Amino acid sequence: MNKRGHVLNAALLAVGLGVMVRPVPEVETLAVVAELFVPIVLGALFPDVDTAFGTHRKTLHNLPVLAIFLAYPIYFGNLQWVWVGVLSHYLLDVLGSKRGIALFYPLWRREFGFPFGVPVRSRWSPVVTLVVTGLELAFGAAVIHWLPAPMAEGALTLLGVR
Ligand SMILES: [Zn+2]
């Protein structure tokens, strides 16, 4: 996926998750959306830094990098929500392109993707971006609304989301 697709995905994800976290329309909902927007968009842009440093779709497109971003809110109490953007970037690259990403790099250089992905420059790329974003928001809604409340609260608190 290209940068435009990743930013569109991250922006829609931030707004959707913000509204889910604070569903009653009020000033606080806008504050939550603003709180999520920049970290998620920055996280969504981060993996493609490996186009300049390292090997694209390998160096910064793998599970150890995601684990580092997950660890920051837990151990240092900062960079909350950035991991959502990184994870979303990975999902979009895996589901929305033919090439895939090296999930287990540097241990395994193989790139994993799905056969129904579309080329990055395809006219279907924006459609795939919106479909993947919809699936991500549906998953977010399931976590927020369907998990037993103590489990959902505990997981979100652990990850620095609440
Ligand atoms: Zn990428």
From TrEMBL:
Pfam families, per database record: YdjM
Keyword Metal-binding: no
One GO molecular-function entry: hydrolase activity
UniProt entry tagged with the keyword Hydrolase: yes
Lineage top rank: taxon: Archaea
Transmembrane segments: 7-24, 30-47, 127-147
Keywords: Hydrolase, Membrane, Transmembrane, Transmembrane helix
InterPro entries: YdjM-like (IPR007404)
Protein name: Membrane-bound metal-dependent hydrolase
Organism: Halalkalicoccus jeotgali (strain DSM 18796 / CECT 7217 / JCM 14584 / KCTC 4019 / B3)
